Amino acid sequence: xxxxxxxxxxxxxxxxxxxxxxxxxxxxxxxxxxxxxxxxxxxxxxxxxxxxxxxxxxxxxxxxxxxxxxxxxxxxxxxxxxxxxxxxxxxxxxxxxxxxxxxxxxxxxxxxxxxxxxxxxxxxxxxxxxxxxxxxxxxxxxxxxxxxxxxxxxxxxxxxxxxxxxxxxxxxxxxxxxxxxxxxxxxxxxxxxxxxxxxxxxxxxxxxxxxxxxxxxxxxxxxxxxxxxxxxxxxxxxxxxxxx
Length: 244
Prior knowledge:
CATH topology of the largest domain: Beta-galactosidase, Chain A, domain 5
Number of domains: 2
Shape: globular
CATH class of the largest domain: Mainly Beta
Mean pLDDT: 81
Order of helices and strands: EEEEEEEEEEEEEEEEH
Helix content: under 10%
Largest sheet: 5 strands, antiparallel
Strand order of the largest sheet: 3-4-5-6-7
Distance between the termini: 89 Å
Radius of gyration: 27 Å
Number of strands: 16
């Protein structure tokens, strides 16, 4: 196969031990058994293997994702997946850091699909190449499925030329769960999948924003941002006679 102008060999490495290695013999076409049957099908509107059937619309969005092993649709009824969305990003403070909750109020879909071509349709892997335009920016994505792995990879590269605009990929899945686990740099964090009431949400913003989500009022005689401290009156303790 050719990739980035170079000829490469795509190998399906099976049973590789964790933190280890495994040696595979290289056979010639005459002595080796080469699998020629292709179980993968890729077109600009549909990708399919033994695990999934993925259908796309004319905007490059996933309209149906059938999990063949569990015989169910992954997406919510009537919803689309892999929907690129652009949001206005103008927080109250710390422009390079904070994302305020009201960012969701101004959303614009990125649906100007300018290219959808089959990049690979081979026995081991299938790749669909998608390109979108948004204002002065370009988003390139390679949607990949495999013969022997129930993975779906979305390799997305953005030549982003916009300012104060967030880019997000939305996947409204038909999964009922109150919490979800997200990857971070050196581990993972668990978060609720629903909006919390106002007071708990402010507390969550303070924790996730490293105390930057709240704006304490200016206290009398203190510096800006310092919370006002009040002295608690001493508590009165009343002793009761024994037996009461």
